[in-house]
Amino acid sequence: GVARILSHEGGVTDIEVLQAALLHDTVEDTDTTPAELEAKFGPTVARIVEEVTDEKSLPKQERKRLQVEHAPHCSRQAKLVKLADKLYNLRDLNRCTPVGWTAQRVQE
Questions:
Q1: What DSSP state is assigned to residue 97?
Q2: Whole-number pLDDT of residue 98
């Protein structure tokens, strides 16, 4: 979804940005390491993915705080991926709200 937003809505054609968009949650959600990404996709894709990767061991509020603090220092490529990911997540909440979530929680 993130790569689709970038390519279809954002007109992004940079293959490394689109690859990073496809892989953006790989380090967070799997046992894949940045070194493995670099070996398969190159240093630029690995760097972009690292820039948008949160430290999952931290509490959610701390991760969000660090995202805001880190955002101005990210590369343009990482900003594109991060913004498209946020947009996708917001749309997904409206499309299929998780069971048990109140309208207030969705709004927050």
A1: P
A2: 86
| pTM higher than 0.85 | yes
| Contact yes or no for 51/27 (Cβ under 8 A) | no
- In sign, the C-alpha dihedral spanning 66, 72, 74, 77 is positive
Q: Would residue 29 show up in a list of annotated catalytic residues for this protein?
A: yes
- Positive or negative CA dihedral for 68, 71, 27, 9? positive
84 vs 67: CA distance, rounded Å: 14
Annotated active-site residue in 28, 36, 50, 54? 28
Catalytic residue among 9, 29, 62, 92: 29
Instruction: Name the H helices within 1-108.
Output: 2-4, 15-23, 26-29, 34-41, 43-52, 60-70, 76-95, 103-107
Query: Is pLDDT above 90 for 13?
Result: yes
**Annotation says 28 is catalytic:** yes
Q: Are 41 and 23 a contacting pair, CB within 8 Å?
A: yes
